[in-house]
TrEMBL record:
Origin species: Actinomyces johnsonii F0542
Lineage: Bacteria, Bacillati, Actinomycetota, Actinomycetes, Actinomycetales
Gene3D superfamilies recorded: 3.40.50.880
GO biological process, one term: regulation of cell shape
Coiled coil location: none
Source organism, top-level taxon: Bacteria
Name of the protein in its database record: Lipid II isoglutaminyl synthase (glutamine-hydrolyzing) subunit GatD
UniProt key word Cell wall biogenesis/degradation: yes
Protein residues bound to substrate: 140
């Protein structure tokens, strides 16, 4: 599927971005599609055209993209995409090394790591884009979650996973857990970062309530496209209200 989103500002577009949504059919739960929509909308509002591409197992991978987004999925969804992901893994790793920004939520975050050992003992291989490994625990970690982050201030979302992720020395955490469980409920880390890639357990969806993260990803995408990112201030009053409500909710 390809969709075009034209810039909504006056005058010519300031640039054009190719946004790839990875595995929307199998890996796209708890509103993760909202992340793609936020990126496309904020880019339009800042004067950029967006070409939205989606990639499902067996499709032809585009030759180059400026930003990639992937969502979460059940173990069964991860099982369905695992062979294809291993096939496209080297291309995704090359993009990441080349500075393509990526956002991988939950199930894809796990598989961007070295792999996920399910509760049944099955090993779903990852692509080792992120130095992290995940093993299913015996309880699900569910609820509202708030992080402190260095680059984006407080980040809010919702987590629902059984996998317990441990980062290796090649990845740094996305944030420090203030409320919730995060990567494993023990070491206070949440998510992982490498190059311009963010992996995180936070659904919600993440980006509508965390515009600072969206704009950081867009800035990296615009840089990758060869255009300049000089954003105008946007009215984020609704996002601010949603953040306040989310942070006031009980776990
Ligand atoms: N199946 C994985 C887990 O439960 C991922 C879940 C998800 O993506 N929400 O850990």
């Amino acid at each position: 599927m390809t969709a075009r989103y034209e810039h909504t500002t006056d005058g010519p577009a300031r640039g054009s971005l190719r946004l790839l949504q990875l595995y929307p059919r199998d890996m796209n739960i708890y509103g993760d599609w909202g992340n793609t929509l936020v990126l496309a909308r904020r880019a339009q509002w800042q004067g950029y055209d967006v070409e939205l591409l989606s990639y499902d197992p067996g499709d032809e991978l585009p030759s180059d993209v400026d930003i990639l987004v992937g969502g979460g999925g059940q173990d069964s969804g991860q099982d369905r995409i695992k062979e294809d992901l291993v096939k496209v893994g080297p291309a995704l790793k090359a993009w990441a090394a080349d500075g393509v920004p990526m956002l991988a939520i939950c199930g894809l975050y796990q598989l961007f790591g070295h792999g996920f050992t399910t509760a049944k003992g099955q090993e779903i291989p990852g692509i080792s884009l992120m130095d992290a490994h995940t093993v299913a625990g015996d309880t699900r970690l569910i609820g509202n979650i708030t992080l402190g982050t260095e680059d984006f201030g407080a980040v809010v979302g919702y987590e629902n996973h059984s996998g317990l992720t441990t980062l290796g020395p090649g990845a740094r955490p996305f944030g420090t857990v203030r409320v919730g469980d995060g990567n494993n409920g023990k070491d206070s880390t949440e998510g992982g970062r490498v190059h311009h890639v963010i992996g995180t357990y936070l659904h919600g969806s993440l980006l509508p309530k965390n515009p600072a993260v969206a704009d950081w990803l867009l800035a990296r995408a615009v840089e990758h496209s060869g255009a300049t990112w000089e954003p105008e201030p946007l009215d984020d009053a609704w996002a601010e209200r949603a953040r306040t409500v989310a942070m006031s909710r009980p776990r």
